[in-house]
Every structure is written in C-alpha cells, then in structure tokens.
C-alpha cells in the first residue's frame, strides 16, 4: 500500500478513500526561573460620605505611587487596573440599613528585578496600601522558552505515534499530515495568601521558585 496524496488545503485523500490515521496529543515543558513579578495592590477605604472615602483613598494611592517611583519603578510600570465604588449596608432586625461607601483603587505594578518584590509590597503597605490581591510571576523570555516547549511537544507527539505504530505492528509515515497547536494562557497567578495586610517590621518573603512553560499539540500520522 502507498500513502495517499493529500490536498494542501483540504487535508483529505485525493481519491476520497478511507485513511489509516493515528491521532495523538503531545506536550512539551520547559522550566524557567521568573525574572519579573506583577503585583496587584491598592487601597480600600470606607466612609458614610462618598467624597471623604474618595479623598482618603486618593491620598493613600498618591503616597504609594510616590514611594514606588522613588524606589526606581518607572511610571509606565504602575497602572490602575480597577477603580470601584460600592454602597455598603448593614442588616439590622431584618432590614437593610445604609452604612456608607467603599472605594477600591487597585494598581498593577511590574517589578524587575524580581528580588525587589517583597520590598515593594512592604513599601506599599508602609504608605497605606491595605489590599494585595495577587502576585503573578513571569519571564521576559517567554516567547523564546515557549518555542522550545513547542518543539518538545511535537517530538513528544511523534514518540507517542511511533509507540502506537510499533505496538500494533504497522509502519508510520515519516511526517504528520497535520499538527495543531493548542493555545494556552502564558501564565497563572501564584496567589499570595492574604488580601489585606497589616504593617509589620519583618520583610515580606516572596519566593518565586521556578515556573513551567507548557506547550501542547494535536497531531495526525498516516500508517500502513
């Protein structure tokens, strides 16, 4: 038996006959040490009068921004990601009673080198920040590392197809008829335990460890 001829665009046998196909998924992983962190932090303030809650919040955020810039973090690495106003209520004897307003202002701060992350968190807290909603560790070499993982995923798919072919006693075509990349998000937040901090004399320990960049593909191989 000879392998069928396929249309470049349609991916189908030219004579419409049934194909003998092995379908596999491949995965590649590359470990890398992150070199930057994205920290979401800010201020949450409450007051019965909205203007006062906003004024207090703005004062805190201004202090935090000045401190961050003073620590050498560029302006373009300090971005507002959320500004929200929430009416607050208490329930007294089954009735909803207005308590005031809560104002939330969050900043996304990109920290590099990553070793400064703990100091940045402490500095923000010392200047009034009372909310840290998450820390995401990233690598500036993501594209380079991802391509390495993608190559490993294709090799892994080939190895699986060869194993299946050898097990069932057939011969695999030298190249796949299709390879489809499975798109993944470039990273997931590594959560920091608490969302509200109290001031402490101890430095906040931030341990980035290593992160895995993962690529996945789906491949199809002809066999005879």
How does this model look, in words?
The chain has a four-stranded antiparallel sheet. Strands 1-7-6 form a three-stranded antiparallel sheet. The protein has helices at 50-70, 117-126, 142-168, and strands spanning 21-32, 36-47, 78-92, 95-111, 131-138, 178-182, 211-222. The radius of gyration is 27 Å and the shape is elongated. A hairpin with a 2-residue loop joins strand 3 and strand 4 (95-111). It is of the alpha+beta class. The protein has three helices and seven strands, in the order ββαββαβαββ. The model is unreliable at 1-16 and 186-202 (pLDDT under 50).
Short description:
The chain has 3 helices and 7 strands.
Secondary-structure topology with pairs:
Layout: E1 21-32, E2 36-47, H1 50-70, E3 78-92, E4 95-111, H2 117-126, E5 131-138, H3 142-168, E6 178-182, E7 211-222
Antiparallel strand pairs: 1-7, 2-4, 2-5, 3-4, 6-7
* Number of DSSP strand runs: 7
Q: What is the succession of H and E elements?
A: EEHEEHEHEE
Helix/strand class: alpha+beta
Report the major sheet: 4 strands, antiparallel
Q: What is the overall shape?
A: elongated
Strand content: 35-45%
Poorly predicted runs: 1-16, 186-202
Mean pLDDT: 83
């Amino acid at each position: 038996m000879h392998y069928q001829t396929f249309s470049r665009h349609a991916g189908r046998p030219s004579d419409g006959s049934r194909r003998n196909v092995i379908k596999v998924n491949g995965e590649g992983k590359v470990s890398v040490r992150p070199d930057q962190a994205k920290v979401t932090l800010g201020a949450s303030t409450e007051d019965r009068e909205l203007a006062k809650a906003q004024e207090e919040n703005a004062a805190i955020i201004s202090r935090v921004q000045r401190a961050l810039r003073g620590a050498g973090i560029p302006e373009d690495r300090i971005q507002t990601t959320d500004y929200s106003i929430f009416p607050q209520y208490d329930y007294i004897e089954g009735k909803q009673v207005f308590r005031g307003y809560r104002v939330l202002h969050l900043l996304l701060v990109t920290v590099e080198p990553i070793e400064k992350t703990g100091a940045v968190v402490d500095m923000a807290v010392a200047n009034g920040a009372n909310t840290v909603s998450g820390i995401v560790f990233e690598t500036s070499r993501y594209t380079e590392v991802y391509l390495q993982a993608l190559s490993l995923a294709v090799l892994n798919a080939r190895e699986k197809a060869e194993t299946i072919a050898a097990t069932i006693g057939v011969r695999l075509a030298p190249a796949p008829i299709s390879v489809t990349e499975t798109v993944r998000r470039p990273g997931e937040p590594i959560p920091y335990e608490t969302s509200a901090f109290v001031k402490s004399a101890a430095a906040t320990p931030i341990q980035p460890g290593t992160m895995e960049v993962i690529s996945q593909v789906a491949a199809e191989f002809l066999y005879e």
